[in-house]
Specification:
- Residues 10-20 have a biased composition (Low complexity).
- Residues 74-190 form the Aminotransferase class V domain.
- This is Aminotransferase class V domain-containing protein.
- Residues 1-25 are annotated as: Disordered.
- Keywords: Pyridoxal phosphate.
- By secondary structure, the protein is an alpha/beta fold.
- It folds into 2 domains: 12-205, Type I PLP-dependent aspartate aminotransferase-like (Major domain) (Aspartate Aminotransferase, domain 2); 207-304, Alpha-Beta Complex (Aspartate Aminotransferase, domain 1), CATH 3.90.1150.10.
- Helix content is 39%, strand content 15%.
- It is built from 11 helices and 11 strands.
- It has helices at residues 19-22, 26-33, 48-57, 84-97, 118-127, 147-150, 179-182, 189-205, 207-226, 256-267, 290-304, and strands at 41-45, 63-66, 76-78, 102-106, 131-135, 154-158, 169-173, 231-233, 246-251, 272-273, 280-283.
- The strands form 2 sheets. It has a 7-stranded mixed sheet, sandwiched between helices.
- β5 (131-135), α6 and β6 (154-158) form a beta-alpha-beta unit.
- α2 (26-33) runs parallel beside α8 (189-205) and α4 packs parallel to α5 (118-127).
- The longest helix is centred in the C-terminal third of the chain and has 20 residues, at 207-226.
- The protein is globular, with a radius of gyration of 20 Å.
- The two termini are 32 Å apart.
Length: 305
Amino acid sequence: MSLLLERAPSRAPVRPAAPAMERGSAPDRLRRFVGGRSDDAVVLSRTSADLMRLFAAGAPADVVVLAGHPGLPGARIVEPAATIDGTVAALEAELVARPAALVVITASSDVTGEVLPAGRFASAAHRHGARIVVDAEHLVAHRAVSIASWGIDYVLFSSRELDALFDVHVLVGRGDWLAPVAARSEPGGVAVGAVAASAEALVSLGFEELGYREQALHQRLDRGFAAVPGVRRMQNFDDPLDRAGVYAFIVDGHSAVEVVEHLSVRHGVGVCRAQPSGVIRVSTGLGTTVDDVDRLVFAVRALTS
């Protein structure tokens, strides 16, 4: 997880992992981490691209991908509308026009942080006989993910956002389509156990508490930037319900390269420039503080003064 000003996650209090999560094998613990059903299969891999490609190749008919996901060879693409309601309608229209077996969506944008209501997209897919896989890589460290309560078929995530030392990619869901994928080589047991332990440590902090804290930081950024001329928060939808882990903005009259260099060189604030849009992307996480937020606002104000 990248953090504003690169503060270490250890600054946040870490409580012991919840006992209920500790029981069972590492794959079982990862299944429970994403609210999997008791009979859901768990497939582990060293790369998410190969994992998704093999999985999608085994689907019995077409695959439809909501734009924003990296995509899959041969998949049909649905472009999002200006609203979430319109995007759900666009997906349904595509499935009515040409049936498909599998729908792929990203749980949250890695540029703007906007979170999609996965349950609504799952209902739309199921109404037209398709299953759905939700790529939750950028969400699992910020919000609780639940296969069962969302009514989705599969979820994909990785250790990259969990501050684990090993690179492990996880696909959890209905086992009948996962047999060809499960035959691939898996990461070692030590790596999988370490990822499960990282997931449990995150659960012990409480996702509700993490969500409220993150929302408060974003609201403070909103108030601070509202007083800085030319700063605009960026979003994909007119009606986002939630944002997680990322705050995206631009500064009118200044290129993204100029903003990034100013913040990093003169103020020691680490941000990213999203390609190809040029939007400035600020990541927030466990180690991000109110002082970090105020320092960012001060630095941007200095640029525009």
